[in-house]
Amino acid sequence: MNDLLTISEIKKCPVHYVLAINDTLNVISGKWKLPILASILYGNYRYKDIQANIDKITPRMLSKELKELELNGVITRNVYDSTPVRIEYKMTESGKNILSVLDAMVDWGVSHRKSTFKHSD
Amino acid sequence: MNDLLTISEIKKCPVHYVLAINDTLNVISGKWKLPILASILYGNYRYKDIQANIDKITPRMLSKELKELELNGVITRNVYDSTPVRIEYKMTESGKNILSVLDAMVDWGVSHRKSTFKHSD
DNA sequence: ACTCTTACTATACAAAAGTATAGCAATACT
DNA sequence: AGTATTGCTATACTTTTGTATAGTAAGAGT
């Protein structure tokens, strides 16, 4: 799916590190992955709620990304036999931990902006 | 360039966090960014060296990505007036710190793989 | 004048990622 | 039978990202 080349193809960085980095990138890259994860984290578990919560996402993209996130073990999909049918997407335990990566990204991003004197954007 | 939507467009997450995350994603996403950064980190400073070091990258992509990384304040470009001309790309101090993000990604990726019992890929 | 080296740029094309718009299937309620 | 709600799928299209291949510019050496 993602055939990013990385450190391994260059020198000694262990292969499983590279795989790990690629896994992580797969989970967070793309236009809608983070918005979706954030929405679920903030308590929107149902398709309609997530859709309403994210401005301008199309149903195609939403279901595509939800499928991928489920496949990657980041969220779960549960069907409840109420009526109308209720389907809930929730973060897995492992999925929740991805916040630590986001924290690292915020930290670097903020200090990088400071040290590089960016004003606008 | 990257109009990733994120947490802010969903709820309360502070805007500068979102900008920070987007900055970070811009620096590491795409097929060649990490290989290039890794190559420079490993001591390949010159265009030819980086190119020789990364299998199958085209000159177009290499110069495109180097420009972007420079623009983003992650690497510097220095021209030395030797002959033939020598140009060196090096990580900025801030650029080097992005390793902390990669560490977080490796950590999550590895433990996620464990907890999800992935075997192959 | 020709060749070598380094560090690229130009043009055309292919593949991947995302958008727009419409419609479907299941169940219940009226 | 008709309408509403939820959770999607289908098809066609545009945009972004990456590839392939060739060529350029500047200086030194022969």
UniProtKB/TrEMBL annotation, chains A, B:
One Pfam match, given by its short name, reads HxlR
- UniProt keywords, alphabetically: DNA-binding, Transcription, Transcription regulation
Q: Which Gene3D superfamilies match?
A: Winged helix-like DNA-binding domain superfamily/Winged helix DNA-binding domain (1.10.10.10)
Q: Does the keyword Transcription regulation apply?
A: yes
Q: Which residues form the HTH hxlR-type domain?
A: 13-117
Residues spanning the signal sequence: none
Q: Which GO terms describe its molecular function?
A: DNA binding
Protein name per its UniProtKB record: Putative HTH-type transcriptional regulator YtcD
Q: Which organism is it from?
A: Arenibacter algicola
